[in-house]
Amino acid sequence: MALDSEARANAALLPADWRDFVALTKPRVMTLVVFTGLCGLLVAPGHISPILAFTAILCIALGAGAAGALNQWYEADRDAAMKRTAKRPLPAGRMEKQSALHFGVGLSVFSVLLMGLATNVLAAAILAVSILFYVFIYTIWLKPRTVQNIVIGGAAGAFPPLIGWAAVTGDVAPLPIALFAITFFWTPPHFWALALFVRMDYANAGIPMLPVVSGEAVTRRQILFYTAIMGAAALAPVLLQLTGVIYGLTALVATAVFAAMAMQVALRRESDPAQMQPEKRLFKYSLLYLFLIYAAVVVDHWVGYGVSSV
After folding, report:
1. pLDDT at 54 over 90
2. Which of 269, 273, 237 is nearest to 255 (CA)?
3. What is the end-to-end Cα distance of the chain in Å, rounded?
4. Is the N or the C terminus of the chain less surrounded, counting Cβ atoms within 10 Å?
5. Distance between CA 29 and CA 38 in Å, rounded?
6. What total number of domains does the chain contain?
7. Host domain of residue 199
């Protein structure tokens, strides 16, 4: 412990480099956010110049990065208590908290202002709401207080398709709302699958994730329950005639695979994290699932089944 403290103190003497600032933005999370925002932009009716489209996606990325930085600024102590986050710049002592705060606030303001100047006020407003929701509603209020943190907080990651669509059209329509709903209901099974095999991390950090508070059996049932709701949301676009056959078939098959994996997780009684391979597979597949769903919407649109009439 003494050696660890000394190492952190020595690391703190060194200035943070660009890689630490990149790490603050949570690049892996940003990839999914950028992709869903891009898909919302690509299927929106109307025209936007390539330069403005690039700027809009850049603003979504910067906004997501800002939210990630502010999340790490606020949760530095909790991150230090979790094995999977202890090497982040702040808990590892490579950066001062004040630097992360300034970086996050600066990125937030810049991304929102640039979005408003490059596209329109609505897109900028939704981007601002998404950042504020993630930081204040999810990170500060929900996450440390309730097992519903992921359920309600899932809205934070569901905004990008609305932002991408609004950047082109200046409004919001049924299709991006449907995409919002899919991501919203996808979030609980995605994160609870992760929480099952890193439960002790959350327990050590005092975060009331569902498996910590209610136990693994309840979590497994809730994964299956929210998978069913997510499946209904995934099929809603084709049932509402917002998309066509390509999306419908993709959503049906991808959701069936998701449901089968969720069922396997729900029926298990394993409590050893080292043995939770089905849970890890579900977590990894859930990432692929969302990419498939959004990509199918874009392909469906490109081949003429899309939302030209919306």
Report:
1. yes
2. 237
3. 61
4. N
5. 14
6. 2
7. 173-310
User: d(Cα 2, Cα 11) in Å, to the nearest integer?
Assistant: 14
Crossing angle of helices 50-74/27-43, nearest 10°?
150
Residue where one domain finishes, among candidates 171, 194, 224: 171
Q: Is 5 exposed, middle or buried (0-12, 13-18, 19+ CB in 10 A)?
A: exposed
pLDDT in tens, 110-140: 999 999 999 999 999 999 999 999 999 999 9
Domain boundary among 145, 171, 197: 171
Tokens 């959503």, residue? Answer: 251
Residue 168 has pLDDT above 90, yes or no: yes
Per the structure block, which two tokens stand in for 41? Answer: 């932009």
| pTM exceeding 0.85 | yes
CA-nearest of 55, 174, 167 to 122 is 167
The predicted model gives 148-175 an average pLDDT of 95
Residue with tokens 């992760």: 194
